[in-house]
Design brief:
Oligomer: single chain
Radius of gyration: 20 Å
Number of strands: 8
Strand content: 25-35%
Number of helices: 2
Mean pLDDT: 87
Amino acid sequence: MNWGKVAVLAILGSAVAVGGGVWYAQEYAYYDRIDPADVTLEVTAGGQQVALAVADIQAIDAGSAPHRWRACFRVTEALPGDAEPYADPTPLYGPGWFDCFDAEQIGHDLESGAATAWLGQSEIAPDVDRVIAVYPDGRAYGWHQINDKTPERGVMD
């Protein structure tokens, strides 16, 4: 065996190991399931936070970034009449194993009007809003979305 083959195998082995590590980090390493008893879901109505009556909560979060929160649940009572719609909802993709949350389907349903997006909480973290999408049958989904409320910043902030 010559040293060229050894070098190529070492490089390929390293690339596979790094790729596997990155995949694992994105899919599993940072996400944790949240105990449903610890999840409070609210909607902004009339400038105030109003608790939602919900059931069947499944939620995940990651401490590495504020926009990794996702939730699937069922709304059991009607939303307040003055709940604030969310202007530009864009569901963010989550890890593949959290299969109750299908960002692509939710996005299509929001565009078609099959679901409606509401402001859950403004600035849940700096420059991040909590958005709640609700279907007429009570199915609902939540995610954190980066907002554009802050003016463009320079490189040296």
